[in-house]
Design a protein that fits this description.
It is a single chain. The protein is α+β, with helices and mostly antiparallel strands and 91 residues long. The protein has a domain of 47 residues. 40% of the residues lie in helices and 11% in strands. The strands form two sheets. Strands 1-2 form a two-stranded antiparallel ribbon. Strands 3-4 form a two-stranded antiparallel ribbon. A hairpin with a 6-residue loop joins β1 and β2. It is rod-shaped, with a radius of gyration of 25 Å. The relative contact order is 0.08. The C terminus is likely disordered.
């Protein structure tokens, strides 16, 4: 019979538990469905009045901020808000 010290047995046991936790953590972080925030970013809006970030899944052009209850303009206004460099600077 192999003699194993109690400290070594506990250390080996905790090492395997740690490997299991790290393996599950890496597996969870590499799942494809966890990367869905990129596809959901088109529903993310920021209120220009109170700077509150919110998701709006409706297809309406006028959004309503859930924080300050103000109405936010049409689709072209929202696109300019998301990408300020896309504004037309014609002279």
């Amino acid at each position: 019979m192999i003699r194993v010290d109690l400290v070594v047995a506990i250390s080996v046991f905790l090492f395997f538990i740690l490997l299991l936790v790290i393996g599950q953590w890496l597996s969870y972080n590499n799942r494809k469905e966890n990367r869905s925030f990129i596809s959901e970013s088109r529903y993310l809006f920021q209120c220009p009045f109170c700077t509150f970030l919110f998701f709006d899944y409706t297809e309406t052009n006028i959004k309503k901020c859930p924080s300050c209850k103000s109405y936010i303009g049409g689709a072209e206004k929202m696109e300019n808000q998301r990408n300020p460099t896309a504004k037309n600077h014609e002279k």
